[in-house]
């Protein structure tokens, strides 16, 4: 972990890729969880069940990914503590994050009924889809403390530049989920409930091994004075960073929820086709997000070490490598997206609709890479308030684009989403110079 010398941070393509590539693979395992459930249920050939998994998983993602801010906030705070050389604070950051994760997870379990009812009320799906999605959501929410705890552990590992261990943990979670899903859904015929229980088991396993890995990294010197953990200044900083990133994430998820709801209002087939496309796109998006993760670590460490030159090099690297991979990702989706749609759904109508909108969905990596890049830069520097503020005009752009393209139906919906992700990158880029001056002087 000792990569800070005399206020300077090592910022090279070699180090950047050493962090980014394991993080890339680790990030890809997250949508793989959705792909496994979608694929297993999709093989049953029932569009209602496939739509229910999409709806239930989306509501789960909305609840959990809002609190996924803990990963980004923990990564930035950890990297800055590393840059300042504060070893005790490194451990304290993880403990605070885990305590917050446990509290939020338990609260979600207690409140999941009213939250699900409220969410389903505005989704516009059929009664069959809502009923099956409720079963899925009510089981999978039991993994809340563990899933959010895994965000905290992963963020801490990113902050100390141990994305290789993070990759191992994410692969473990994905593997347990895949095996359990196939067994419960396709072998033992537990249906949609089996897909949910498989995810609960996977998250519990990930948390257990994540804590073991963190303990081994810390070694014998794991103790942190309680007064350090509850230090008022640090607690206020932690809560503020996570709160603002949480609001920013909630805004993103509100757009995705609206996107899904509009698909549901067309019919179950369009809902299912959009779900298949979105899961495919998210694999490439999380692939590119690995570069964002590297930016979190290096930019955060540069801020902690007050190394302005290192920070600027990190910004250039994340943009260079991000765009370098975005174009091939889009090309790969255009070429290979059709067969993947066929693999994920046995329903011919879903396949046909999915292929019709694939060209628009395939543009997501290319138009969204800047948003991912600047997210990593901002998270590492803990410019959480500005991440939140710049999301507001991006959301406004989405709804304006949707309203203008209403006559185009589902094509207009995809165009609005593309405008949203492109706008995020533009607004964050415009704000960056002023924030850099304020941070480094």
From TrEMBL:
According to Swiss-Prot or TrEMBL, what is its membrane topology? Multi-pass membrane protein
What cellular component terms from Gene Ontology apply here?
Answer: plasma membrane
Q: What GO molecular-function term can you cite, just one?
A: xenobiotic transmembrane transporter activity
| TM spans (from-to) | 16-41, 47-67, 93-115, 135-158, 165-188, 194-218, 245-264, 276-295, 315-336, 356-378, 390-408, 414-432
State one Pfam family annotation: MatE
What keywords tag this UniProt record? Membrane, Transmembrane, Transmembrane helix
Q: Where in the cell is it found?
A: Membrane
Q: Which domain of life is it from?
A: Bacteria
NCBIfam families, per the entry: matE (TIGR00797)
Family to which this protein belongs = Belongs to the multi antimicrobial extrusion (MATE) (TC 2.A.66.1) family.
- PANTHER family for the chain: PROTEIN DETOXIFICATION 44, CHLOROPLASTIC, PROTEIN DETOXIFICATION 44, CHLOROPLASTIC-RELATED
The name of this protein is Multidrug resistance protein, MATE family
